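[recover] target loaded
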């Protein structure tokens, strides 16, 4: 596997905390047998990016719009977040409750397109998820050190300490040297200013002090220097709300050898996470989402946000638009879909299933226009598929003997604790693209109704595929296929509305009668 590591700067030209993190990660990946090439964001081109299987993007302020567009298109990159490049000010701490004004949020699509955004502390994860929905954020809860450097820090333990505190002598105003001096003066804390030049010389000097006074002026995503002080057994005087490490409560409570051991453990897990994220073949989980729009365009943005916020991200989201005056003036460019397929005809229920044939992913997920899934719905489906491969859906129908469409339901409207085999599913479908092909092996019996019946009937008849409802545990809406069906699906725009019941259910009776006459075997026939 060829891995490209992109950053504005690397440790050979700039000795910052981010660059140290990056160098330690790169050295680990190379030691594990991965082929890693470093390239500067200032010089890399889209054609360079296309040569690599996976990309890690560190600091990227100099990355061109063309390169970002290429990465968003390919969706094969990880963002390693060292500061806050999703906010124009680069510091979310200036806003109340870290709620960033919408006009100051930047690079939103870039963050959403990443396979994963790796952050260094809990507070960074919380802020990013609060301000940009649909981002897959993973918190490693640490900065990265080499084993050699941690051995060196450990070797400094037990040294005699001065009854003084250290302040980092930095000309960079965001490091808060002047503020630290004012605090020491106000609290009568005796201190020395120490410079950061050679890192090991600095650590040796810091180890001889009782503590460190460090008052950053922006939110530090982790703060290596604060953690190094803790590992060296120093007290830490700081503003906790501006130190990411302080949001890692267990880690912040430790000092000396205990802190070093915890960092070793967290580093080990973090390195393994990066390696596994690069090596895992996500194509086996790739999902194309197809939404249907007819008379409820007002729900599309909420649907798309809920889908972007899934724990398993889809590769693309498409919207199939059947013609109706209710959506004629709707701005489909405002909803964040990857593709919009607009028709000058109402293809009713089957049209979206024709679009599914164009998907180039293993799985296709289709949703009715009133269906807002919980954040773990795709995760739920993929886990179910491992043990029950077939057509999966949100509401399952179990037909009753000799009752045509008489049935019991299971799913979001009647929660099931475990996987349930059913005759057909509706509201939300999660299927292999190959199963969609089965739908078209015969002309639909009724073009105006019963696409869900026809799909399960054809799949069973031609490929022996069964139909299941994944678990919908009561009280755990994150795993549900639909979280608002009881309110969104019962308005006057519903096809199954009361004034249309007789026509709607007569058609479905006929669809079931046709299918059973021509070889469909409902669950009750196999249980008797």
């Amino acid at each position: 596997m060829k891995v490209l590591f992109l950053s504005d700067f690397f440790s050979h030209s700039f000795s910052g905390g981010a660059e140290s993190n990056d160098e330690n990660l790169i050295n680990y990946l190379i030691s594990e047998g991965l082929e890693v090439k470093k390239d500067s964001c200032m010089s890399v081109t889209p054609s360079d990016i296309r040569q690599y299987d996976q990309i890690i993007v560190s600091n990227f302020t100099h990355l061109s719009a063309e390169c970002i567009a290429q990465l968003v298109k390919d969706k094969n990159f990880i963002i390693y977040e060292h500061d806050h490049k999703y906010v124009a000010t680069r510091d979310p701490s200036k806003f109340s409750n870290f709620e960033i004004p919408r006009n100051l949020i930047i690079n939103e699509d870039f963050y959403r397109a990443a396979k994963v955004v790796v952050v260094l502390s809990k507070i960074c994860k919380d802020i990013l998820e609060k301000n940009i929905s649909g981002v897959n954020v993973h918190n490693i809860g640490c900065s990265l050190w080499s084993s050699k450097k941690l051995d060196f820090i450990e070797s400094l333990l037990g040294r005699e300490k001065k009854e003084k505190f250290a302040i980092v002598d930095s000309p960079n105003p965001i490091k808060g040297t002047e503020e630290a001096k004012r605090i020491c003066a106000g609290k009568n804390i005796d201190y020395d200013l120490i410079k950061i030049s050679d890192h090991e010389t600095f650590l040796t000097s810091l180890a001889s002090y009782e503590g460190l006074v460090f008052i950053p002026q922006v939110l530090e995503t982790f703060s290596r220097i604060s953690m190094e002080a803790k590992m060296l057994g120093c007290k830490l005087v700081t503003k906790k709300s501006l130190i990411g490490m302080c949001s890692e409560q267990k880690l912040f409570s430790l000092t000396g050898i205990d802190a070093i051991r915890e960092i070793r453990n967290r580093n080990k897990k973090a390195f393994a996470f990066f390696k596994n994220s690069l090596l895992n073949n996500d194509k086996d989980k790739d999902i194309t989402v197809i939404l249907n729009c007819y008379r409820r365009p007002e729900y599309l943005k909420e649907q798309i946000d809920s889908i972007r916020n899934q724990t398993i991200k889809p590769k693309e989201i498409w919207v199939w638009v059947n013609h109706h005056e209710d959506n004629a003036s709707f701005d489909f460019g405002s909803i964040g879909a990857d593709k919009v397929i607009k028709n000058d005809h109402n293809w009713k229920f089957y049209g979206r299933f024709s679009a599914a044939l164009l998907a180039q992913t293993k799985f296709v997920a289709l949703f009715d226009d009133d269906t807002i899934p919980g954040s773990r719905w795709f995760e739920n489906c993929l886990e179910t598929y491992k043990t029950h491969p077939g057509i999966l859906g949100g509401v399952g129908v179990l037909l009753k003997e000799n009752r045509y469409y008489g049935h019991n339901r299971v799913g979001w409207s009647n929660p099931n604790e475990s996987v349930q085999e059913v005759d057909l599913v509706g509201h939300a479908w999660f299927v292999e693209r190959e199963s969609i092909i089965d739908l078209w092996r015969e002309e639909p019996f009724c073009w105006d109704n019963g696409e869900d019946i026809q799909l399960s009937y054809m799949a069973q008849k031609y490929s022996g595929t069964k139909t299941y409802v994944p678990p919908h545990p009561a009280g755990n809406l994150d795993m549900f296929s639909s979280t608002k069906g009881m309110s969104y699906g019962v308005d006057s725009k519903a096809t199954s509305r009361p004034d249309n019941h007789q026509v709607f259910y007569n058609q479905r009776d006929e669809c079931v009668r046709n299918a059973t006459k021509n070889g469909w075997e409902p669950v009750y026939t196999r249980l008797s």
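[recover] notes: The longest strand covers residues 391-399.
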